[in-house]
From TrEMBL, chain A:
InterPro entries: AAA+_ATPase (IPR003593), ABC_transporter-like_ATP-bd (IPR003439), ABC_transpr_MalK-like (IPR015855), ABC_transpr_MalK/UgpC-like (IPR047641), Mo/tungstate-bd_C_term_dom (IPR008995), NA-bd_OB-fold (IPR012340), P-loop_NTPase (IPR027417), Transp-assoc_OB_typ2 (IPR013611). Residues 4-234 form the ABC transporter domain. GO terms for molecular function: ABC-type transporter activity; ATP binding; ATP hydrolysis activity. It comes from the Bacteria. Pfam families: ABC_tran, TOBE_2. Belongs to the ABC transporter superfamily. It comes from Limimaricola pyoseonensis. GO terms for biological process: carbohydrate transport. This is Carbohydrate ABC transporter ATP-binding protein, CUT1 family. GO terms for cellular component: ATP-binding cassette (ABC) transporter complex, substrate-binding subunit-containing. Keywords: ATP-binding, Cell membrane, Membrane, Nucleotide-binding, Translocase, Transport. The keyword Secreted does not apply.
From TrEMBL, chain B:
It holds the Pfam family BPD_transp_1. Coiled coil: none annotated. Residues 69-262 form the ABC transmembrane type-1 domain. This is Carbohydrate ABC transporter membrane protein 2, CUT1 family. InterPro entries: BP-dep_ABC_trans_perm (IPR050901), MetI-like (IPR000515), MetI-like_sf (IPR035906). It is a multi-pass membrane protein. Belongs to the binding-protein-dependent transport system permease family. It comes from the Bacteria. It is found in: Cell membrane. The chain crosses the membrane at residues 12-34, 73-94, 106-127, 139-157, 195-216, 236-262. GO terms for cellular component: plasma membrane. PANTHER family: INNER MEMBRANE ABC TRANSPORTER PERMEASE PROTEIN YCJP, MALTOSE TRANSPORT SYSTEM PERMEASE-RELATED.
From TrEMBL, chain C:
It comes from the Bacteria. Keywords: Cell membrane, Membrane, Transmembrane, Transmembrane helix, Transport. It is a multi-pass membrane protein. Pfam families: BPD_transp_1. GO terms for cellular component: plasma membrane. This is Carbohydrate ABC transporter membrane protein 1, CUT1 family. One of its GO terms (biological process) is transmembrane transport. InterPro entries: MetI-like, MetI-like_sf. Belongs to the binding-protein-dependent transport system permease family. Residues 80-290 form the ABC transmembrane type-1 domain. Its main location: membrane.
Amino acid sequence: MASVKFENVTKRFGGFTATEGLDFEVGDGEFVCLLGPSGCGKTTTLRMMAGLETPSEGKVWIGERDVTRVHPKDRGISMVFQDYALYPHMALADNIAYPLKVRGQPRPERHAEAQRVADVLQIGHLLDRMPAQISGGQQQRTSLARALVTPSDVYLFDEPLSNLDAKLRLDARGFLNHLQRDMGITAVYVTHDQAEAMALATRIAVMDRGRIVQYAPPLEIYRRPATTFVANFVGNPPMNLIEAEARIEGGQLHLQAPGLHLAPLPVPAALATRAPGRLTLGVRPEHLALAAPGAANRIEGRLFANENMGPETLVTVTRTEGEARLTARIFTDEAPRLSGAVAFGFEARHLHLFDAEGLRVPGDGE
Amino acid sequence: MTDHLRQFLGRAGFAFFTALIGAIFALPLVWFLFAPFNSRAELGLAIPEPFSLSNFRQVLENSFAIRALGNSLIQSVGGTLLVALAATLASYALSRSPLPGKRAVTYVLLLFSSVVSGSAAMVPIFLMITRAGIIDTHLSVILVFAGGLLPTAMFILRDFIDGIPRSYEESAMVAGASPVQAFFDVALPVIRPGVVVVVVWAFVNIWGSFLIPFILLRSAEKMPASVAIYSFYSEAGTPIVTLLAAYALLYSLPVVLLYLFVSWKFGFRFFGGIKA
Amino acid sequence: MKRFSLLSPRAGAAFITPAGLLVGAFVIVPFFWVIYVSFTNRTLLGRTALNPEFVGLANYLELFSPHRFLDPGQFGFSLVLTIQFVLFSALLGQAALGMALAWLLQQVPKPVKAMTETVVIGAWILPEVVIGFAWFAFLDYDGGTLNGMLDAVGLPRGDWLLDYPFWVIVVFNTWRGTAFSMMLFNSAFASIPPSYFQAADVAGASSWQKFRDIGLPLIRGHVVTDLILITMWTFNVFTPFLLTKGGPGNQTEVLSIYTYRVAFRDFDFGKGAAVGVVVMLINLAFALFYLWVARKRTPGGAA
């Protein structure tokens, strides 16, 4: 096991900057997810750890070693690829044992080792099949087995579950989680699926346009998103963001927006010295509930959509004519029967404030 | 109801019309189905009576004819191996290495190869081969074919290799393989179907070609079948039909077998502008 | 700075070398050599075989000499003949027939499709000398299959190779090469989503309307590709030689056969090379046009 460290790493492809000034560390035994939309630079970051791309600037460390210019084969890493990269001309046993083969292990030993790992991953009975003869989920496990068959300092995962259908993805996710708890490996895991990142990571690095915008444990990301981008990206459905007119009057913060009724808030320390102007108000769908029309803190709108999900109902309203929509997760039985005017209530402690640049305004006590 | 009838008649009409075109296409070949098995075959169409293999026996006893088939084999296999080997290496490099201007290289080669056709290049190729002192050798035929077929072979293979995910080699290297190991362990087996296509294509091209060996070879013991077949004409210029028919069938056999092989293996899907 | 790549530039260069040498020696060198030879009076035998003299544009002036340019056996005659040959056998014959077959094959029962395809492709892949011989037998005056059939339906027989040699090689080349256009158009039609045609079916379109309104417009790019390629190939094809040897007289002496005769029968390499250069220029025009079209189209087209 070892840590991974990026020192001011920039990668440019021609005129395009894929990552800029990345500076972060993955601790020994951590499971870090690089989370972001496509094109945010997360895969490039992973490939620079693997040595499949060379940084334009900056340094990459694995443990105590500067590996910036080290060939992938000499980095002491394993990697699972998005398309699995199972060699179609080799049986599963040979696929899994390939890393041992290039290390010169004799055939019986490496096949015994492949068998051991395959048994752990519950594909031990398939070893003489060819990759084309097994299911997608089994292929995924095979690629996992090939990564796990050699002890490595760091394990890299490039969207390993994105080619599975929804049900299998959940299974595999649980399995990975179990494996990580069992083996305590150092892992870096690229995904665009926020639920996957939340479920697996010890820390999440949320990336946007080549930069890390927040690097924190999952719950921290969920509870205190650093920017509107993070707030919007983590959580399903995403956090509701409401543009509001803000002014400070009588030592209190007043927020105004169409359909919004909000009792004045205490002024956060960060806003005490500057005029707030416009702020963005955030509230998660699960923190909204159906409210009586007269409740103190409420948002009103007209019903737009009403999606019954089983345990909950996703109720979407429009606050104004047009685009200003708002979604709530409602767990009561009357939700499916709503129509016309709807009001949601919430508690002030569940509100998030972001300034005009989209940066979080820390509440008191943060 | 009448609509259905009309539709049915329409479909039947199409089928009949298509079959008719097919039949017309088959006409020039029908003679070939019978003549080789007719010991008294002439240019006229006749059903063999009795059905006989004597023509083939005659061919097999003709050492010149057999040697010509052997020569075709030497030249085709030699040329094909050279094309496959050089094209595989080159197109792998064109696809995977960061050589500057590699896209332009492929297009320039393709441009040259389509501009320098057999009819344009027969004079300089003859002169070059003469000056190199390898006129009238198998080697000359092999080299000229290899050079001429390579650009298209490289184009086909580079396209094929470009379509193969780089993650195969990347995963091999992450697993600890050197670039050379990754090439032989992983890349080469994966691109083998593409190489097979090129091999079949090159073989069929060389095997069936007439002009190049016709110009470059003159001693009888080096002639491939495509040229040697013209020795089955009598002094007066009339063909010895029995021999010719059987020989032509034997000579066509590898091409037919390869066609069957390709259509069995790949469903003879269309592979590019592959026959020059 | 050392950057990671699957194959280092040095290894890449080494991988390319064998192909580069072969193509250089047998494609690129001939390209320049033929230009050089075309300015000399090089012959196969005699004094100028070893010590050819520089003759400037003499070979070209002879090719284009105005008062006998179009006489049979002259360059101009072969050029015009070749253009007619391309027009009738490639553009009208192969492309139109290939298109018709490709369209018909989309909608006929599988056995009919398989058999027709096999025969048409067979005409294309069998070795050219075999094909030449098969046609020689097919067209034979006394017992040939064609005359036999004409007899059977009461039509007059013909000595086709003597009386209509040009039309024989036109039909022959159409027959020989239709497979390529058929296969290209077939794969082009197959790449159109079936729902397009089903939507037209629902709207009540006939097969002809579907072809005209949906099929043809959607494969326009492939049609251009096909036309350029078969034009280039037909322009350079030598196979008619196997049927007619360019005769009778010079009636089927297309450019490739003309070049062969000038260089290897008359042993006038300088003049043969000059023809080669003109042919290359024409090829170049086609090839550049093709690359220009291919570049305009999105990548991924066949051929």
